[in-house]
């Protein structure tokens, strides 16, 4: 959808470029800049995460050896492996084990939305700054902007709660509760203790940014609505006897 407004630039009516940086100080332009920045933050906080879960293992010929399973975006935990703590695999009793769960769909949804919103904000800012005169004269542009803004606000709501649920499951799948489910740790003479997991505070922040994006886009809906014929029609209806 990020090219919907930009597609109109090929129209002869939009050949006249009129730069107006002051639009960035108007509520509609300023909010769009904030949305653009927050989309970057969502992409960076979620898409750039890397972490690992560590266990302390003792087995045949090995005492308190640390084994780790590394994981990162898009959080396909079922590919993160705890390798053998020694080359001989604890005397043949250790079988490589993976973490449980694949949360890539939720993570991809959240980050892909941020990327698309980033592109749409850039497109909208080009229209606001360079072609605001046409935007205001042709009601099709505000109506299109309104429709897309409503859709984005809804998608931020859905993707944020989906990602928040996935994040809770990721924490459970990488925390201390994983130890009882590791078969290699149940072998005779083998003991495993949960050691640590990378802090996921930055992922908590990504959820907060998702909520902030949703709130901003709801406000954006109102700002764009005031530029459409729907608002003026409603005012005429409310003012009529």
Automatic annotation (TrEMBL):
Membrane topology recorded in Swiss-Prot or TrEMBL: Multi-pass membrane protein
Entry-linked Pfam families: MARVEL (PF01284)
Keyword vocabulary terms for this entry: Glycoprotein, Membrane, Transmembrane, Transmembrane helix
Stretches that traverse the bilayer: 21-44, 109-131, 143-164, 202-225
GO CC term, one of those recorded: synaptic vesicle membrane
Subcellular location, record wording: Membrane
Similarity comment: Belongs to the synaptophysin/synaptobrevin family.
Protein name: SYPL1 protein
């Amino acid at each position: 959808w990020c090219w919907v407004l930009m597609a109109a630039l090929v129209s002869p009516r939009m050949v006249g470029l009129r730069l107006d940086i002051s639009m960035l100080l108007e509520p509609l332009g300023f909010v769009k800049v904030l949305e653009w920045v927050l989309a970057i933050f969502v992409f960076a906080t979620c898409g750039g995460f890397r972490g690992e879960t560590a266990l302390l293992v003792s087995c045949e010929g090995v005492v308190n050896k640390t084994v780790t399973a590394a994981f990162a975006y898009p959080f396909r935990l079922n590919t993160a492996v705890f390798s053998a703590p020694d080359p001989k695999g604890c005397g043949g009793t250790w079988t490589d084990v993976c973490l449980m769960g694949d949360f890539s769909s939720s993570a991809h949804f959240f980050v892909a939305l941020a990327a698309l919103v980033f592109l749409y904000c850039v497109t909208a800012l080009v229209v606001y700054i360079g072609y605001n005169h046409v935007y205001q004269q042709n009601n099709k542009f505000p109506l299109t902007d309104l429709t897309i803004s409503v859709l984005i606000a809804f998608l931020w709501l859905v993707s944020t709660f989906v990602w928040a649920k996935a994040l809770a499951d990721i924490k459970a799948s990488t925390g201390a509760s994983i130890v009882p489910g590791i078969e290699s740790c149940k072998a005779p003479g083998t003991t495993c203790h949960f050691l640590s997991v990378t802090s996921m505070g930055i992922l908590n922040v990504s959820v907060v940014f998702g909520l902030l994006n949703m709130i901003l886009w709801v406000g954006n809906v109102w700002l764009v609505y005031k530029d459409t014929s729907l608002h003026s029609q409603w005012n005429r209806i409310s003012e009529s006897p």
